[in-house]
Known about the structure:
It is built from 7 helices and 26 strands. It is mostly beta strands. Strands 1, 3, 4, 6, 9, 10, 11 and 13 form an 8-stranded antiparallel β-sheet that branches. Strands 14, 16, 17, 19, 22, 23, 24 and 26 form an 8-stranded antiparallel β-sheet that branches. The chain has a 5-stranded antiparallel β-sheet with strand order 2-5-12-7-8.
Amino acid sequence: xxxCGVVVALTSSLMALTVDQAPPGFxxxxxxxxxxxxxxxxxxxxxxxxxxxEAERTAxxxxxxxxxxxxxxAQGPELVNDGxxxxxxxxxxxxxxxxxxxxxxxxxxxxxxYLRGVPQVQIWDYTDEAKFNLGAHKGSGGLWNNSAxxxxxxxxxxxxxxxxxxxTMRIVMVGSRVxxxxxxxxxxxxxIMENYYDRATPVPARGPIQLQTHxxxxxxxxxxxxxxxxxxANDLLRSKGTQxxxxxxxxxxxxxxxxxxxxYEIRDGAIACKPEKGGTIYWNRTLTDFDARVEFKxxxxxxxxxxxxxxxxxxTAYVGMTELQVLDDNYEQVRGPxxxxxxxxxxxxxxxxxxxxxxxxxxxxxxDVQVVGSTIRVELNGxxxxxxxxxxVDPATYIAGSAHPGVARTEGFFGFAGHxxxxxxxxxxxxxxxxxxxxxxxxxR
Length: 445
C-alpha cells in the first residue's frame, strides 16, 4: 500500500516539476531547450529498420528528421507539434519501462504514443461524433491497434479531461504487457499489446518511444522514463493472475516429487540439476488441463526442459505430450547450431517459439505455460513466445522425421527434463483447469 501511495503522489506532483526535476529513478526525455535525444519516425516496423544496412537506415532516418524538425518545436517546458510531420521518436531504444508524461491537445485532434515503435496508446477527441464508430467516445488510453474485442483495445473507463486542460499519463510496459493510467485512473490493466506489423509475432523486445502526430496541435511536457530492472519486472508479472495457483515446491526439499531425484539438488531455495546429470523429475500428481508458473535461471549454453503430460518413464520429448525447451537463447554461440524448433520455449522438434525475450544469463526469468486439450501457450517474461495446437502439426514436418507417439496424450505429469547442465527452477506453481474451460479464454490471456 505504501508503494501505491508513493506512485499516486509522484504522478499527482508532475505538474509542479520542471524538466530538471524528474521523479526519483526517472530520466527526462525532453530537456526543455531543444530536440536533443529525438529523431524523426513514422509508422514503420522497427525490426525492419534495424535490419537495414547502416547506409539505408541513416538515409531513412534523415528523411524523417527533415519533416519532423519542420513541425516540432521546443517551447520552454513544452514540446510542441503543429499536427503535421514525422513523429518525435527517441534515439534510444527501451525494453521494460515506466513512462510518465502530460499532454494537451485540441478539438478533433488524434494522436498517440508508440511503445517500442509499435502503435499505440490512443489519444483523441472523445467528443468527436464523427469517430464514435471507431470508439472515440470511450476515451483515450486504450491500445487502439489491438484486435477488436482483445483486452486493452478500449479503455476500461472514460478518464479524459476537457480540452484546454493537461492530461497526465502513466504507462508501464513489461514484456508485451501494458498498463495505462490516464489522470490517475487505470484504463488498461496488464493487457498484451499486439504487434501491429505482424500479429503472428510478438512486439520487439526493445524499441523507441514515439509521440504520434495526426492532424491537430498537441503539446507535451514532463516526459520522464524509468527503465524497469528484471527483478522488479518479475515481481510485477508474478503479482498478476495468481488466483488458483498452488505451490508444488516448498523451497527446501523435493517432497511430492518423483523420477530422477538423485540428479537434482536444492540450492539457494531452488531446484537445480546437478552438473553432468540428467533425467526427468516430476510433481507426482496426474494432470489434464493446467497452468504452470515457474522461474528459471540458465548458465551459458544451459539446456533443460519442461515435461508436459509426462507418463513417468521414457524421454518426455517423445513419450510425453511434449518437452518445452528451456535453453540459453545464445546456445549457438556456446555449443553450436540448432534447429529453430529446439530453441527456448519451443515444443521440441514440432513448433518453434519466438526468440530474443530471455533475461541475460545469471538472471531469473518468469514463465507461464497453459495446456488445454491439444493447445499450448508459453509466455516468457511477459511476452507470448508460443501459441500452438499440436494436433494441427503435420507429423511429416517433425524434426529429423522423429516420431512423437505421446503428442496426443490427454494426461500426465509436469516436471523438469535435465540435460547435464546446472539449470535452476524456483517458485514452481500449478493451477489445474477444468477440461471444459473455454479454449479461447485460456489461449488469449
